[in-house]
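new request in #modeling-help
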Amino acid sequence: MPLEDTPFLRACRCRPSDRVPVWFMRQAGRSLPEYRALRGDRSVLEAVTHPELAAELTLQPVRRYGVDAAILFSDIVVPVVAIGFGVDLVPGIGPVVEHPFSGPADLARIRSLDPEKDIPYVIDTVRLVVRELDVPLIGFAGGPFTVASYLVEGGPSRTHARTKTLMRSDPPTWNQLVELLADLALAALRAQVEAGASAVQLFDSWVGVLSPHDYRDLVLPATRRIFAGLADLGVPRIHFGVGTGELLSLMADAGADVVGVDWRVPLDEARRRVGPGRAVQGNLDPASCLSPWDVVAPEVRRVLAEGGGGPGHVFNLGHGVLPETDPDLLHRIVDLVHEEGGPR
Amino acid sequence: MPLEDTPFLRACRCRPSDRVPVWFMRQAGRSLPEYRALRGDRSVLEAVTHPELAAELTLQPVRRYGVDAAILFSDIVVPVVAIGFGVDLVPGIGPVVEHPFSGPADLARIRSLDPEKDIPYVIDTVRLVVRELDVPLIGFAGGPFTVASYLVEGGPSRTHARTKTLMRSDPPTWNQLVELLADLALAALRAQVEAGASAVQLFDSWVGVLSPHDYRDLVLPATRRIFAGLADLGVPRIHFGVGTGELLSLMADAGADVVGVDWRVPLDEARRRVGPGRAVQGNLDPASCLSPWDVVAPEVRRVLAEGGGGPGHVFNLGHGVLPETDPDLLHRIVDLVHEEGGPR
């Protein structure tokens, strides 16, 4: 089947399809024993630089689950690491920045990304993966707010208070920062598509901590720059964040073809906010997957029902797979979605 | 002025008032130098047990800021600590539970609360405070989901995965747990009102991690039990959580007179979700208060404008005061709200 006719790409384009496609954020990850075995003691950032390894980590969940799309094994900080900003991924914590971004003088530390030189391993991984795959590969990058927040806070933050203070008290510096980060994301995404990725997802995971007012003024323009810069490539653009109920229509306005929705907003309501002509992706609570099957199955059916108001539903979790998830349960979810998520 | 005629109580009851009242969640806290000086090396849980000290900590922000209400200096874990569940407040972390709740056998560890015997210091603090105050005192308790989550997770959690798994996979145990916690909250709140508190706030701070579906089935009934159990006392009942955009109408249905709203949902939209006859409380982003005044003032004015669609707006932050906040800036916010939040 040509990739363009696969359920995943048809759903992303709001075209009728014979079944609801399904994949999982973080399907390539610690919940899989074969992932833990293959990655071994290597850090995520080290594993990303080994194309054969990263390709295999990308393919593992496709083989095991029969999901309708692969997502590249990588991390949203890869571009900022590659340009030498000084970011590490610390197990149990997340991204940690040696010298956080603290003002306009730090703008010079964000040079542009030359994918062929800076992230050749990502391009090689994509090429290796698409040679093996018969479903679409999703490339991805981090959204401007989320990456900026890591750089400004120096690591994960509960309040994002430094980031919010920078964006509000020095908008010119903030705007330059997110535009530079948007250019990094755009370069990384274009390189992945040119190497063979069939769709892209922008993970602005933490942008839901902003009010619609702040999002519209201080994040949307940079995000629009990314999506507009991908338009000529003709691939579906997915836009995701958690806790974004109040932002869904703005995230669609930014130029997304598919808007990812966490479990807080029922998909039928999410469709109303996103508007016609755009697909929705989601939205089973990842914590649901720690319950027994007789609890999970009705939840899956509810998500299918709520998403079933038209073509254009990509089944997914509302956030990434939790590491303690039983892979067999994810497999049963895929089977159930394929059995009961019929034509729409 | 009789307390019933104060702007705070009039706004809580959706009665016209000559100004918008304002207070701040965590106004009694580490942002105040006089708080840090007076509490000294005592833990929060120790300070709570000293009525003269706790009363003074309650009064400090009222004197400094001229806010329209005081909130008791205490903590949402005080009732579970008092019945001996084994909870400590660890600085920099939060509540930590020595032996977390892990199943039906642990239900027996949650005995009922006899306020006169178990939390006499809370009652004494309330009595001391109301003797000094000329504005209403707000009593409070933790909401059933939030307290249950601490007991089940053993401490703060990013995913609340254990709690969600318990609630979904063993609803009978979960329902008993939250009913017992509801009874604790109710007993604590009634005791505070009987000692002189003029209003109560139920902090179900983390309930926004639930879908509306889970909230309706698994939290709302216990919450309704609390609010219904307060009805005969005739005091306004405020209901607050963060990230609750999709839950606002259900939180109102639970029996709240005032629904607290974080900064993610503009207050005019929050009013629509909460419905007529109920007040809204909020919703300046606490992180805004770390920016310079020329950034904060327009934000305050926007909140006033969005809240101004009728009587029944209590100005507040969308969550607690951050410890690094400059008290002078909070003082300016109070003055601005009093100057510009005119009759409505």
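bot summary: Chain A touches chain B at residues 159-161, 164-165, 168-169, 208-214, 243, 245-246, 263-266, 269, 285-288, 290-292, 295, 302, 322, 324 (CB under 8 Å).
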